[in-house]
Each structure stands twice: as structure tokens, then as C-alpha cells.
Design brief:
Strand content: 25-35%
Helix content: 25-40%
Number of strands: 15
CATH architecture of the largest domain: Alpha-Beta Complex
Order of helices and strands: EEEHEEEEHEHEHEEHEHEHHEHE
Radius of gyration: 19 Å
CATH topology of the largest domain: Quinone Oxidoreductase, Chain A, domain 1
Largest sheet: 7 strands, mixed
Distance between the termini: 12 Å
Number of domains: 2
Length: 310
């Protein structure tokens, strides 16, 4: 089978498509034949050697596909089921996944749209729920044109936000963000100069994180949903009596599984009613290096998705 791997650290150019042996599901695992897989900024960290990723490495992330085989002891699903979820090594024609990390996918939904719901959409709506956005409040979204951010913009409007501010590193993305429902589009350098908001959903990390905190009004809330680092000054948090919360989908799934199921159901409903519009840059699996280069240049609008030919 074909699998995207890298045999050295570097940039997008080190990705290649290898022929490898198909995996066999072990106890408590399912084998999935993929239709589409997502590419995220975490791949760039892997390519840089973050976390001492062993070589050869292979990107993980969200996927949509069909169960091809069940490992010993697996119940609650069967061969042929269409599912989506996350896997440690997802960029391949076949992957191994844990049943707890997959969910059914409707037959009528395209693979790219389904990926937008089961991965990016789940994070987006969970962030808004954890941030307790109320109707009539204002919200700021960083990395707003990305795979998760562009869904947050739409969902914030759907949940009744009175003002949605989209932050991006490129002014060229302004029209795209406004088409999704953003009232204002700002650059990262201007975050601390915009009118304060009630809620910040921070998906950029690094130097953007403290600037995003400065955009909050007193008693505002910030939810950080990016694993890209960044440091906050405790004095800035104390002085404005703001609340900072980290979002971990793993923790939510373990400790609040009912909330996760409610979020999934709401996302499928919004998609069916065409009130949620996932946007994807779709490339074939063999162009994984090009997909990663799009992320490196921050040129993508929406989610970068690799399509896996059947």
C-alpha cells in the first residue's frame, strides 16, 4: 500500500510516497481503507523534529474511510462501516485506528465535508461550547482561514454572536473570511488595537497568543486550541480578570463523552441544513509535499485534504 512518510527532518520537500506492507489490526484496533485524510500545521512540527519524532515518520490526523478489518475483541462496528476519526499515522491507503476514536459517517456526505465535521468541526464547536459563547456576545478567531478557524467563524455566527472578528496573517484572505460571516478582519499586529471582545478562540499560538489575550475585555474568556506554543503573562490575566482555558478533545472525550456526542449530532444537522460549509483544498495523496508546502506558506483557505483514490 502507499503511505506518506519522511526519512529526514526538514520542510515539505522531505515528504515522499512509499510502498509499504499493509498493517494488520491488533486487539482493540480496526483497519480502515481511507477516502480522505487531513493535513494540519502539526505536520510541520513533526517535520522539524519536534517531540523527537522517530524516523521514518508519517503524519497523523483526521480521516474518513471504511472499515476493512476488525482486530480481536472489537465490537460495536463492522466491516464496511463508513467512519471518520483520528489516527496516529493517517496519510496512507490503509490505517489503524482505535474504535473509541472513530464515529459513523453518513453515506451521502462527501469525504472532504465529512472530514470537516469529524475533525475540524468537532474542535471548532467544542471550543465555542467550552468558551460559553452566548447570543449577542462578540468573538475573535485567530488562524481564522485555517481548517478549524474557518468553521469557527461560521459556527459563531450560527450560535448568535453579534460580532465576529477574524484574525489572519494575510490581508489577501479578507474576502474569504467575510464570505463566511466575519464582520471584521484584522491582522495579528493589530489585535490589541481592535475593539475588545467577550471571547477569543486562539488557534495560532506563538507571539499571537499574548496579543489575542490583549483583545479581551475585562472578565472575558480565551480558549487556546492550538498546540503551537506561546506564553502568557500571569499579570495580564490577573489585571483584566480574564479566564484562559485549554481545549483537549481527548480530555473531553474521556470525561464528557455526552457533550462530544451532542456536538457531533449538531454538526451533522447543520451540515445537512447547509448552515455549515466546510471549505477544502483537495489534493491527491501523491501530492502530500505540495499540501504541506501550502501550510508552510499559509496560503490555504480552509482545510488541506489529501484524497485517496480507491
Amino acid at each position: 500500500m502507499r503511505k506518506v512518510r519522511f526519512h529526514a527532518y526538514g520542510n515539505a520537500d522531505v515528504l515522499r510516497l512509499d510502498e509499504v506492507a499493509a498493517p494488520t489490526p491488533g486487539p482493540g484496533e480496526v483497519l480502515v481503507a481511507t477516502e480522505a485524510v487531513g493535513v494540519s500545521l502539526m505536520l510541520l512540527k513533526m517535520l522539524a523534529g519536534a517531540g523527537d519524532t522517530p524516523l521514518p515518520g508519517s503524519p497523523g490526523g483526521g480521516f474518513v474511510g471504511r472499515i476493512a478489518a476488525l482486530g480481536p475483541g472489537v465490537t460495536g462496528c463492522q466491516v464496511g462501516d463508513r467512519v471518520g476519526g483520528v489516527a496516529a499515522e493517517a496519510c496512507a491507503e490503509l490505517l489503524l485506528a482505535a474504535p473509541a476514536l472513530i464515529t459513523p459517517v453518513p453515506e451521502q456526505v462527501s469525504a472532504a465535508d465529512a472530514l470537516g465535521v469529524v475533525h475540524g468541526g468537532l474542535v471548532a464547536l467544542a471550543a465555542l461550547r467550552v468558551g460559553e459563547l452566548a447570543k449577542g456576545q462578540s468573538v475573535l478567531v485567530t488562524n481564522a482561514a485555517g481548517g478549524v478557524g474557518h468553521l469557527i467563524v461560521q459556527l459563531a455566527r450560527e450560535l448568535g454572536a453579534a460580532r465576529v472578528v477574524a484574525a489572519s496573517g494575510s490581508p489577501a484572505k479578507a474576502d474569504f473570511l467575510r464570505s463566511l460571516g466575519a464582520d471584521e478582519v484584522v491582522g495579528y499586529q493589530a489585535l490589541d488595537r481592535c475593539e475588545p471582545v467577550d471571547l477569543v478562540l486562539e488557534g495560532a499560538g506563538g507571539e499571537v497568543l499574548p496579543r489575542a489575550l490583549a483583545a479581551l475585555r475585562p472578565f472575558g474568556r480565551l480558549v487556546t486550541l492550538a498546540g503551537y506554543g506561546g506564553t502568557l503573562d500571569a499579570g495580564a490575566v490577573l489585571g483584566s480578570m480574564t479566564t484562559v482555558t485549554g481545549l483537549s478533545m481527548g480530555q473531553l472525550a474521556r470525561h464528557r463523552p455526552q457533550l462530544v456526542e451532542e456536538i457531533r449530532a449538531e454538526l451533522w444537522r447543520l451540515l445537512a441544513e447547509r448552515r455549515l460549509r466546510p471549505v477544502s483544498v483537495l489534493l491527491p495523496l501523491e501530492r502530500a509535499a505540495e499540501a504541506a508546502a501550502l501550510l508552510e506558506s499559509r496560503a490555504n483557505l480552509g482545510k488541506v485534504v489529501l484524497s485517496v483514490a480507491s
